[in-house]
C-alpha cells in the first residue's frame, strides 16, 4: 500500500467511524456517587479502620507528624480487603521517576500457603516499602548499575486508589522513590521536602502577624492541561507523531486558527464523548475535574481540575495525563501532550495555578477584606515577587525541555523571560509603598502599609494578561510557562523553595523588629515591602510579553532571557541554586547534579530521536514521492516533445531544484548526527541546539515546499488540514 493510499484509508476510516456502543449514563450512576468510588479515602478509612488507627493516620496526613509503623499492618489489611472487594488481584507501588512519567510495579496479593493453595496477603511492610529493580530508571550517576536497588516508600498523604482495566483491577499506592542511600530518585521526594520547608517559613510569618500556633501551611496547585486530539488513523500514518510526538514536517494549512473560531466553540461530538469518558474515570479516582473547553488552535482542548494540595495535585495530574491518553485511544484518537505538535498554530501549556494557605487563615494570597489581612497579603505577595526575581533563572530551568523550547521564547506563547504580571491596581499599591517611607508621606498621596491602616484592596486583579509567564490572577499566581507534557512537580518544588527562602528572610526581619518593640510591626512591614520593591520590583511587567520592545527592556532591567533548554539547565547547578536547595533540605548537591545530568540527557535523546526520524522520513517517504512526481512531469515533457508540443514547466524545474536540495539537506543532517562533540553532555546538548536543530529546520523548509508542489495523490503524509480538522 503506497503512502498516499494509507492517507486515503485514514480519511475513510475517520469518515466511517462508528462511536462506541456503550453510552455512559450519568443519570443511572450520578457523578456524585462516582466521585472517589475507587479511592481509599478518609470516608473509607473511617469505616474500615479501628478508630484509634484512623485518628492517628489522619493526624499524620493533616499535620505531617511521622507515621507510627505499628499501624501499617492494620491499614494494609483493611486496604487489601477493600481492594479485593473491588476486584483487585494485584497491588502496585506507583512512583514518579525523573523521566516525568509514571512508573508502577505490579505484585499479586497471592502467596502459596504451603499445601497447594494460596493466601491473599498484604503485610504492613509491603505497604510501607517496596523494592523495584530500579536500574533502568535515570539517576544521573547517583547509583551505579551494580547497586540497582531503589526503594519505594508509601506516601501517606496521597490516597491509594484502584485502577480499572477491562480484565481486572489493581490497587495503586503512591510512593516516593529513593536510592538505598536515601537520595531522591524521583519527583515526589523533593516536592514533599519543599512543602515542609514552605510550611515552616510561612508559619513564622503568620506568627509575627499575631496568629498563635497557626495550622500547617500547604502549597496548592491547580494545573490547566492543554492537549491536541487527532484521529488515530492519521497518528499511525505519521512516523514523526508516533516517535517524536510532534510533526517534523507539514506545510501550513490554508485555514489555520486565524478566524479564532475554535476557541470556546461547540465541542465536536466525538470529542465530547471522549471528555465525558475521561471525566467519569477521573471522578472515580477522586480527581475533581471541573472545566473543559476548546482551546485556541483547531483540534486543541483544555481540561482543568479544582486545585488541591500540591502533592495531591501532582499525583492527580500524572493520572490525568495517562487517563487522557487511554481514553483517546478508546475513542479512536490520539491525545498529543507535546508542547508544539503543529508548527504555525498555538502550542500547549500547562498553566500551574499556585497559592498557599492553611485551615485557620485560608488562602494567604487572597487580599481579604480587612486592612489587617491586606498587610499580611502584601507581605506574602511581596515574598513571591522577591522569590521570582531572585530565582528567575531557576524557574526557567525547571520548565526547560526540548519540546517546551518550541513554545517558550519562540514567536508565540510566554517568552523565556520570567516576569510577573500583577495587574494595574496591585502594581499601583506596590508602587506607592515603594515610594512611601515615613508615615507622614501619606498626606502626600502615598500609601503606607499599616497593619491597621491599609485600605481595602481590590480582589479582582483586573485585566488578564495572556502574554505573561507568571501572572497574579486575583488570589493566586499562574505559572503559565510550564509545558503541557511536563510533570508539575519540578515547577512546584522550585516555587515552594524560593518562596520558603523569601519568607525566611522576611520573617527574620519582622521577628527582630517586633522583638524590640511589638508596636514596630507596621513600620517593619512597610520597610520590608519597600526594600523588596526597590531590589526586586524590576520583575513586575504588565505589558505585552510577546513584543520585541519587551526583550530590549528586560535586558535593560537585567532580567535573564534564557532562550533554550541548553542555556537554562546549567542554572540548576549554579552555586546560588545549590545553596538554596541545600539550605532548605530539598535537594543535596549530588541530587541536583544528578538531575541536571538526567535532564540534559533527555534533551539530547529527544533531539536525536527527532533528527533520526526526520532523516528517515525525508529519505524514505518525502524524497521518493518528489522523485515520482518528477518522473511523471519528465515523462509528460518527453511525450509532448515527441509530438512537437513544447512543454515549458516551471514546476518541473522547481521540483528538480527542491528534490536535489532535499537530498543535500538529508546528508547535512546525517553528518550533524554523526558528529561527536565530546563526552560531556553539555557539549552534546549544545551541538543539538546549534548543529542538529538548525539542520532539521532547513530540511523541513524544503520538504514543506515540496508538499506545496507535489501532486496531492502522490503525497504520502497526512496533511495539517487533515490532522487538525478531520475528527
Ligand atoms: P482560567 O482559564 O480562567 O485561568 P480555569 O478555571 O481554567 O481558569 O483554571 C483555573 C485553575 O486555577 C483551576 O484549576 C482552579 O482550581 C485553580 N485555582 C483556583 N483558585 C486557586 C488557588 N487559590 N490556588 C491554586 N489554584 C487555584
Ligand atoms: Mg488559565
Write structural notes for this entry.
The protein is α+β, with helices and mostly antiparallel strands. The chain has 23 helices and 18 strands. Strands 9, 10, 11, 12, 13, 14, 15, 16, 17 and 18 form a ten-stranded mixed β-sheet that branches. Strands 1, 2, 5, 6, 7 and 8 form a six-stranded mixed β-sheet that branches. A hairpin with a 3-residue loop joins strand 14 and strand 15 (362-363). The longest helix has 54 residues, at 589-642. The two termini are 23 Å apart. Residues 437-444 have low confidence and may be disordered. It binds adenosine-5'-diphosphate and magnesium ion (MG). The site of magnesium ion has 3 residues, from loops.
Amino acid at each position: 500500500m503506497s503512502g498516499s493510499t494509507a492517507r486515503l484509508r485514514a480519511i475513510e476510516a475517520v469518515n466511517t467511524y462508528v462511536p462506541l456502543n456503550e453510552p455512559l449514563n450519568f443519570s443511572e450512576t450520578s457523578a456524585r456517587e462516582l466521585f472517589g468510588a475507587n479511592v481509599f479515602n478518609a470516608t473509607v478509612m473511617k469505616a474500615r479502620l479501628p478508630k484509634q488507627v484512623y485518628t492517628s493516620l489522619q493526624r499524620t496526613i493533616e499535620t505531617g507528624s511521622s507515621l507510627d509503623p505499628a499501624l501499617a499492618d492494620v491499614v494494609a489489611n483493611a486496604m487489601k480487603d477493600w481492594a479485593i472487594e473491588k476486584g483487585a488481584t494485584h497491588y502496585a507501588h506507583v512512583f514518579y521517576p525523573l523521566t516525568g512519567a509514571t512508573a508502577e510495579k505490579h505484585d499479586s496479593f497471592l502467596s502459596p500457603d504451603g499445601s497447594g493453595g494460596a493466601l491473599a496477603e498484604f503485610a504492613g511492610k509491603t505497604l510501607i516499602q517496596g523494592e523495584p529493580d530500579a536500574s533502568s530508571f535515570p539517576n544521573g550517576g547517583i547509583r551505579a548499575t551494580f547497586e540497582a536497588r531503589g526503594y519505594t516508600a508509601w506516601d501517606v498523604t496521597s490516597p491509594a486508589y484502584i485502577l480499572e482495566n477491562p480484565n481486572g483491577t489493581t490497587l495503586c499506592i503512591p510512593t516516593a522513590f529513593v536510592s538505598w542511600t536515601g537520595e531522591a530518585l524521583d519527583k515526589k521526594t523533593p516536592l514533599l521536602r519543599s512543602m515542609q520547608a514552605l510550611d515552616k517559613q510561612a508559619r513564622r510569618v503568620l506568627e509575627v502577624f499575631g496568629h498563635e500556633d497557626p495550622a500547617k501551611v500547604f502549597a496548592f496547585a491547580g494545573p490547566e492541561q492543554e492537549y491536541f486530539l487527532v484521529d488515530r488513523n492519521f497518528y499511525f500514518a505519521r512516523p514523526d507523531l508516533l516517535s517524536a510526538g510532534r510533526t517534523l514536517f507539514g506545510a501550513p494549512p490554508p485555514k489555520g486558527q486565524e478566524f479564532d473560531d475554535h476557541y470556546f466553540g461547540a465541542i465536536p461530538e466525538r470529542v465530547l464523548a471522549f471528555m465525558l469518558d475521561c471525566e467519569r474515570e477521573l471522578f472515580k479516582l477522586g480527581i475533581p475535574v471541573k472545566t473543559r473547553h476548546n482551546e485556541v488552535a483547531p483540534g486543541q482542548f483544555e481540561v482543568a481540575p479544582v486545585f488541591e494540595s500540591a502533592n495531591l495535585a501532582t499525583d492527580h495530574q500524572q493520572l490525568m495525563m495517562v487517563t487522557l491518553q487511554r481514553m483517546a485511544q478508546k475513542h479512536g484518537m490520539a491525545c498529543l501532550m507535546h508542547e508544539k505538535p503543529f508548527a504555525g498554530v498555538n502550542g500547549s501549556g500547562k498553566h500551574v495555578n499556585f497559592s498557599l494557605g492553611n485551615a485557620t487563615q485560608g488562602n494567604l494570597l487572597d487580599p481579604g477584606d480587612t486592612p489587617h489581612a491586606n498587610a499580611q497579603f502584601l507581605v506574602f505577595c511581596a515574598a513571591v515577587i522577591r522569590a521570582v526575581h531572585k530565582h528567575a533563572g531557576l524557574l526557567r530551568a525547571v520548565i526547560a525541555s526540548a519540546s517546551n523550547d518550541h513554545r517558550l521564547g519562540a514567536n508565540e506563547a510566554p517568552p523565556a523571560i520570567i516576569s510577573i504580571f500583577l495587574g494595574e491596581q496591585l502594581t499601583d499599591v506596590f508602587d506607592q509603598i515603594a515610594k512611601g517611607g515615613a508615615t507622614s508621606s501619606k498626606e502626600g498621596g502615598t500609601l503606607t502599609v499599616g497593619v491597621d491602616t491599609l485600605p481595602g484592596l481590590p480582589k479582582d486583579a483586573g485585566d488578564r494578561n495572556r502574554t505573561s509567564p507568571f501572572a497574579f490572577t486575583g488570589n493566586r499566581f499562574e505559572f503559565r510557562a510550564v509545558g503541557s507534557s511536563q510533570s508539575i512537580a519540578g515547577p512546584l518544588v522550585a516555587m515552594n523553595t524560593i518562596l520558603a527562602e523569601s519568607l525566611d528572610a522576611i520573617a527574620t526581619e519582622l521577628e527582630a523588629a517586633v522583638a524590640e518593640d511589638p508596636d514596630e510591626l507596621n513600620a517593619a512591614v512597610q520597610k520590608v515591602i519597600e526594600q523588596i520593591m526597590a531590589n526586586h520590583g524590576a520583575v513586575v511587567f504588565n505589558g505585552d510579553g510577546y513584543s520585541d520592545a519587551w526583550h530590549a527592556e528586560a535586558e535593560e532591567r537585567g532580567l535573564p532571557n534564557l532562550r533554550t533548554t541548553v542555556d537554562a539547565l546549567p542554572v540548576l547547578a549554579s552555586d546560588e541554586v545549590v545553596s538554596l536547595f541545600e539550605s532548605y533540605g530539598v535537594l543535596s548537591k549530588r541530587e541536583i547534579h544528578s538531575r541536571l545530568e538526567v535532564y540534559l540527557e533527555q534533551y539530547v535523546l529527544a533531539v536525536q530521536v527527532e533528527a533520526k526520524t526526520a532523516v528517515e522520513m525525508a529519505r524514505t517517504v518525502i524524497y521518493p514521492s518528489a522523485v515520482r512526481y518528477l518522473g511523471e512531469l519528465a515523462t509528460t515533457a518527453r511525450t509532448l516533445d515527441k509530438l512537437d508540443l513544447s512543454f515549458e514547466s516551471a514546476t518541473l524545474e522547481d521540483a528538480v531544484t527542491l528534490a536535489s536540495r532535499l537530498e543535500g539537506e538529508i546528508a547535512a543532517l546525517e553528518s550533524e548526527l554523526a558528529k561527536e562533540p565530546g563526552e560531556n553532555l553539555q557539549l552534546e546538548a549544545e551541538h543539538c541546539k546549534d548543529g542538529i536543530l538548525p539542520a532539521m529546520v532547513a530540511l523541513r523548509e524544503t520538504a514543506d515546499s515540496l508538499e506545496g508542489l507535489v501532486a496531492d495523490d502522490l503525497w504520502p503524509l497526512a496533511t495539517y488540514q487533515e490532522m487538525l480538522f478531520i475528527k
